[in-house]
């Protein structure tokens, strides 16, 4: 994946789909769900810890903090940091390198690395959706949306 700008919320979820991510200093990742008073979706609660480890994922998921390109590389969210005008070319170069390998071996190895992921992801998506459904009805969610829209800290009430 060539991640040049903001991968926030759902964009973070999409950025976790590729096997590798090429980033630049301007890239920003954030799981801002808790700032909106809502539970993460898109399978982020499964994919992010698998990618960067439980502790760093918790830090991102429980704070909503933004991670820029350099830090993304340190976290393991990015695999290579390049200038913004080189992101797409580097992603294509990596894809080309993989494409030069024996396709059956690449597919088999990738399948082994992801074994059981689809089933685990389905269960996690169902759980995330259930959590999102009840949280979407709370005053905290309404306040989170207003706070982000108004660019101010949220005043949450646990209701």
What keyword list fits this structure?
2-enoyl-CoA Hydratase, Chain A, domain 1, globular, 9% strand, three-stranded mixed sheet, 54% helix, three-stranded parallel sheet, 159 residues, mainly alpha
Describe the structure.
With 159 residues, the chain is mostly helical. The protein has a single domain (2-149), classed as 2-enoyl-CoA Hydratase, Chain A, domain 1 (Alpha-Beta Complex), CATH 3.90.226.10. Helices cover 54% and strands 9% of the residues. The strands form two sheets. It has a three-stranded parallel beta sheet. Strands 2-4-5 form a three-stranded mixed beta sheet. Helix 2 packs across helix 3. It is globular, with a radius of gyration of 17 Å. 25% of the residues are buried.
Topology:
Layout: E1 2-3, E2 6-8, H1 10-15, E3 22-23, E4 28-30, H2 44-52, H3 54-63, E5 67-68, H4 69-75, E6 80-81, H5 87-99, H6 103-113, H7 117-135, H8 139-149
Parallel strand pairs: 1-3, 2-4, 3-6
Antiparallel strand pairs: 4-5
Average the pLDDT over all residues and give the rounded result: 96
How many strands, what sense, and barrel or not for the largest sheet? 3 strands, parallel
Number of domains: 1
Count of helix runs: 8
CATH superfamily: 2-enoyl-CoA Hydratase, Chain A, domain 1
Cα-based radius of gyration, to the nearest Å = 17 Å
Q: Portion of residues in helices?
A: 40-55%
Number of extended strands: 6
Extract low-pLDDT stretches.
none
Q: In one word, what is the shape?
A: globular
Order of helices and strands: EEHEEHHEHEHHHH
Strand-pairing-aware structural class: mainly alpha
The fraction of residues assigned to DSSP E strands is 5-15%
């Amino acid at each position: 994946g060539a991640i040049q700008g903001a991968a926030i919320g759902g964009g973070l979820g999409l950025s976790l789909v590729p096997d590798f991510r090429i980033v630049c200093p301007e890239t920003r990742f954030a799981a801002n769900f808790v700032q909106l008073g809502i539970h993460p979706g898109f399978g982020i609660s499964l994919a992010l810890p698998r990618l960067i480890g439980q502790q760093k994922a918790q830090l991102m998921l429980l704070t909503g903090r933004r991670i820029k390109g350099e830090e993304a590389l340190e976290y393991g969210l990015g695999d290579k940091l390049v200038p913004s005008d080189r992101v797409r070319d580097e992603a294509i170069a990596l894809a080309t390198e993989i494409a030069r390998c024996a396709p059956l071996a690449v597919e088999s190895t990738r399948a082994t690395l992801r074994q059981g992921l689809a089933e685990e992801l389905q269960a996690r998506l169902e759980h995330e959706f259930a959590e999102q459904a009840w949280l979407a009805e709370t005053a905290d969610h309404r306040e989170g949306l207003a706070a982000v829209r108004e660019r101010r800290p949220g005043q949450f009430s646990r209701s």
